[in-house]
């Protein structure tokens, strides 16, 4: 929420509006007085990394009455506020819409009572409303993600990982209860991201007799050598008759029937607290800035809107339509129309649920398929690789295929380091960082004949390559060698996995979210270290090769003063302007600076050069320090996003490969020589797409290992604007939000 407050405040000030912060939610709006304060640029400095909300939040019974809303209207009119940005759940947003619909009547009443003049009423005749959804449950229909959900998933997964170690040590079963009174999103995604043995969500109660089936499956898992069981239950879980299923009931069931040592952990409000994740900080910043544009664009005929996330784009949707669909989900659950409830939650929720059911327990394939697939990792290690391997192996076994894994990438394939794997060989891989298979950067052209020999030896008909730019380039080399080697006329797919996020054909690569969070956490600590010393600027170098994604997104997440990247050329004049900006900043209460530099952003303006320049120009005003984050960005446990994303990509890639294998299978052999049989799978805007590597070659800068077009460059203007850079509003609108109509902005508008 704080990132949203910061973005709305700074964007509002940037466009010349007065911005007010209302403390303690609707209670502060009704009470007025010191609860409504005008903000300046520094009012929201150094809050982006804080959990909760610095302006407070409170439930307010008075606002549910007309008398309370009358007082609120009086307080807004006093300050000339006619635009309101509300951050909250569907109840808060519905209240805002009611307030808006009553606005004219409330002003008339204030005029009749003599509290305001008719002239004041005319001047403030319209109230514009925009909503940002803040809810850890992700229970609001119309947006892919609500503010706070990703951070809550981080808290849950941290606890699941910690509990897993003690459960393995003591051979225990743990029942974890997570929040979600009416929505099972947190339980579902944490179950998918942790490989939970059993899952309870309110949208899909278990079938009658579930107790027997659950205990049978838990027993089977233990009999195969597992030392633990994890059961995740949403607090609102129910059975088919609507009776609550409690965590203690599940625990007693396991103890009585199986005799397993079982513990219950209720996570409670720990899920609401802590430092916000990088995803939440960037999401909130994008939504906050879009909210200001929505208010400025509003007309008397514009309905109240809510700013939502669709893929990687901020969009505006009619508020009350979204609220109605959200209520329809609850109505479907109350009427026991559970399948419809899952569909109303959205395609992502439904996909998550179906994938969880596919991967949680082994189901015998209906028939043995004639196909065999090999899976390997290529390039530098990236978090989420193991999640993708696990899901690919398991879905391949479900399809009846023979599944091989290859150690050490293409080099291992050339050396014959190939082995067949089963369902349980990949148990426990979800939360592991790095690459369990081992990975190397070797490209096929250095050992092509040996690779071909082993493809023939193991009768490999499908090749799934999980890795970075080398994986993409390697598969391209294999495709181009098809004319020389018939053995390479097989189905191939690349799952992009690199912290650099530089693989063509996808907006996001596996591992980039974990790397951004690792860099963000380091920068948070660096900023905190400067709070005591004051007047200090840190130059922080990030990885990423020539791709500036990591620097840019980390810069937004930590509120950096600048982030230098190769794709956004800069000169000595830009560096001089940045030094002057930091010099001015040292005259305020915020006496510290943070500058990020992508490792290959400029041939001559190295990290050492920037340090010397800033040190020299800032002499007597501030001093400088260098931090090279290095390989800590590649390590650590995968974030919930990367675990979930890797799991989904692994499943979708193997299903696509299975379909292609059927298409090119004839007379007992596979022959795939068309371009569409070797693809990169990736998320493009909101859709998982398969792009032929031969087509992607046309839009790739091989010298710098980059796609020629990168969507995230639009975020650069947001980074600069929030850092108090002098860019024009027209430049911001055209570069960041092309769908916004350019128009003259009135400085009389108040927020």
From TrEMBL:
UniProt superkingdom: Eukaryota
UniProt keyword Metal-binding, yes or no: yes
Cofactor(s) listed: Mg(2+)
Matching SUPFAM superfamilies: Phosphofructokinase
Keywords noted in UniProt: Acetylation, Allosteric enzyme, ATP-binding, Cytoplasm, Glycolysis, Glycoprotein, Kinase, Magnesium, Metal-binding, Nucleotide-binding, Phosphoprotein, Transferase
Pfam families: PFK
InterPro entries in alphabetical order: 6-Pfructokinase_euk, ATP_PFK, PFK_vert-type, Phosphofructokinase_CS, Phosphofructokinase_dom, PKF_sf
Domain Phosphofructokinase: 1-294, 373-656
Pathway field: Carbohydrate degradation; glycolysis; D-glyceraldehyde 3-phosphate and glycerone phosphate from D-glucose: step 3/4
Gene Ontology CC annotations of this record: 6-phosphofructokinase complex; membrane
The protein's role, per its UniProt record: Catalyzes the phosphorylation of D-fructose 6-phosphate to fructose 1,6-bisphosphate by ATP, the first committing step of glycolysis. Negatively regulates the phagocyte oxidative burst in response to bacterial infection by controlling cellular NADPH biosynthesis and NADPH oxidase-derived reactive oxygen species. Upon macrophage activation, drives the metabolic switch toward glycolysis, thus preventing glucose turnover that produces NADPH via pentose phosphate pathway.
HAMAP family: Phosphofructokinase_I_E (MF_03184)
Protein name: 6-phosphofructokinase type B
Organism encoding this protein: Zosterops hypoxanthus
């Amino acid at each position: 929420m704080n990132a949203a407050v910061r973005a709305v405040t700074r964007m509002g000030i940037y466009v010349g509006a007065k911005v007010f912060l209302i403390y303690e939610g609707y209670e502060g709006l009704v009470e007025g007085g010191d609860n409504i304060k005008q903000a300046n640029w520094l009012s929201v400095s150094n809050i982006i990394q804080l959990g909760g909300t610095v302006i407070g939040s409170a439930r307010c019974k008075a606002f549910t009455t007309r008398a309370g809303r009358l007082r609120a209207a009086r307080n807004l009119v006093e300050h000339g506020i006619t635009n309101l940005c509300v951050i909250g759940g569907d109840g808060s947003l519905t209240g805002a819409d009611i307030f808006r619909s009553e606005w004219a009547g409330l002003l008339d009443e204030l005029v009749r009572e003599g509290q305001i003049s008719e002239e004041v009423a005319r001047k403030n005749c319209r109230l514009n409303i925009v909503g940002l959804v803040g809810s850890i449950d992700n229970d609001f229909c119309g947006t892919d993600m609500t503010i706070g959900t990703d951070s809550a998933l981080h808290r849950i997964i941290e606890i699941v990982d910690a509990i897993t170690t003690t459960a393995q040590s003591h051979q225990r079963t743990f029942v974890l209860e997570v929040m979600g009174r009416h929505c099972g999103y947190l339980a579902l995604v944490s179950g998918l991201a942790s490989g939970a043995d059993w899952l309870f969500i309110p949208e899909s109660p278990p079938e009658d007799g579930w107790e027997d089936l659950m205990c049978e499956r838990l027993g089977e898992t233990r009999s195969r050598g597992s030392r633990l069981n994890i059961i995740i239950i949403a607090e609102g879980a129910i059975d088919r008759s609507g009776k609550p299923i409690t965590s203690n009931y599940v625990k007693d069931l396991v103890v009585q029937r199986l005799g397993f040592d079982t513990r219950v952990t209720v996570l409670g409000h720990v899920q609401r607290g802590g430092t916000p994740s990088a995803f939440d900080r960037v999401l909130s910043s994008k939504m906050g800035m879009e909210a200001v544009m929505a208010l400025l664009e509003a007309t008397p005929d514009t309905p109240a809107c809510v700013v939502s996330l669709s893929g990687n784009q901020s969009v505006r949707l009619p508020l009350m339509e979204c609220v109605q669909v959200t209520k329809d989900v609850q109505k479907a659950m109350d009427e026991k129309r559970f399948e419809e409830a899952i569909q109303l939650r959205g395609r992502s929720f439904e996909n998550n649920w179906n994938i969880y059911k596919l991967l949680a327990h082994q189901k015998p394939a209906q028939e043995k398929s004639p196909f065999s697939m090999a899976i390997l990792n290529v390039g530098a290690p990236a978090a989420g690789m193991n999640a993708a391997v696990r899901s690919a192996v398991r879905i391949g076994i479900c399809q009846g295929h023979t599944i091989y894994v290859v150690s050490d990438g293409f080099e291992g394939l050339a050396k014959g380091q190939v082995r067949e794997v089963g369902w349980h060989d990949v148990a426990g891989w979800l939360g592991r960082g790095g690459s369990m298979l081992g990975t190397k950067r070797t490209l096929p052209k250095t050992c092509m004949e040996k690779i071909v020999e082993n493809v023939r030896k193991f009768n490999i008909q499908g090749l799934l390559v999980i890795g970075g730019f080398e994986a993409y380039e390697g598969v391209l080399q294999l495709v181009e060698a098809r004319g020389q080697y018939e053995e390479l006329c097989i189905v191939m797919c690349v799952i992009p996995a690199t912290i650099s996020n530089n693989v063509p054909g996808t907006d996001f690569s596996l591992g980039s979210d974990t790397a951004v969070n690792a860099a963000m956490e380091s920068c948070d600590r660096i900023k905190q270290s400067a709070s005591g010393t004051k007047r200090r600027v840190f130059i922080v170098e990030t990885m990423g090769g020539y791709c500036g994604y990591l620097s840019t997104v980390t810069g937004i997440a930590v509120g950096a003063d600048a982030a230098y990247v190769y794709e956004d050329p800069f000169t000595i004049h830009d560096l001089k302007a940045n030094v002057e900006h930091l010099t001015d900043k040292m005259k305020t209460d915020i006496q510290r600076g943070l500058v990020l530099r992508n490792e290959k952003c400029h041939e001559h303006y190295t990290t050492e050069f920037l340090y010397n320049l800033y040190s020299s120009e800032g002499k007597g005003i501030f001093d400088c320090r260098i931090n090279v984050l290095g390989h800590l960005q590649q390590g650590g446990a995968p974030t919930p996003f990367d675990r979930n994303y890797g799991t989904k990509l692994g499943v979708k890639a193997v299903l696509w490969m299975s379909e292609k294998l059927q298409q090119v299978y004839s007379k007992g052999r596979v022959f795939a020589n068309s371009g569409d049989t070797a693809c990169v799978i990736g998320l493009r805007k909101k859709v998982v797409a398969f792009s032929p590597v031969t087509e992607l070659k046309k839009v790739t800068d091989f010298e710098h290992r980059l796609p020629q077009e990168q969507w995230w460059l639009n975020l650069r203007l947001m980074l600069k604007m929030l850092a108090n850079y002098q860019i024009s509003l027209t430049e911001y609108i055209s570069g960041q939000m092309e769908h916004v109509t350019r128009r003259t902005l009135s400085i009389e508008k108040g927020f």
